[in-house]
Design brief:
With 194 residues, the protein is an all-alpha fold. The protein is 71% helix and 0% strand. It is built from six helices and no strands. α5 runs antiparallel to α6. The radius of gyration is 31 Å and the shape is elongated. The two termini are 27 Å apart. The model has no long low-confidence stretch (mean pLDDT 89).
Amino acid sequence: MRRKTFDALLTSAGFVLVIVLVAAGGLLLWAHNFVDNQVHTQLAAQQIFFPKAGSDSLDDPAVKPYLSQYAGQQLVTGAQAEAYANHFIAVHISEMAGGKTYSQLSSESLANPNDTKLAGQVQTVFRGETLRGLLLNAYAFGKMGQIALIAAVSAFAAAGILLILSLLGYAHLRRVPADAEVMPKLTGAVPHTA
């Protein structure tokens, strides 16, 4: 195969990959913006605020290291949702339920149908665990949005590198002699006989 033809094919394939990577980067950037906007909008609508600095809620050693950075802020990001769910709601549910899960409390309540205090505790734990699960879903979607942003930047960077390499390939293509071969046949080789 002629070297010029081979180089032209490789360089053209590089340009095609540039177009594909730019398109992928654009779609990934759109996905990031969409997810980020949805997470922010849905969380902001819930009107959840972190306890203010100096409040008793932030003095708990199981809470303070994770929530003090967000003190007094409205919960609007995936990272904030994860912190609130795992280090505020989960801590308070565990304290209230004595370390028991919703399933354990529910089983106890079914075994003691006349215990109204336990039934109320089951309902409170259920609501807390439901809110916690919803916040952790927001966190997961927020994380997917971050990953989409990283992938978009990577796709754009790879497209830039390939564009430079393809341009260098076309510049090199002009200097290749027209009769050059990719793998020239060996001269003087002994033919193989059976």
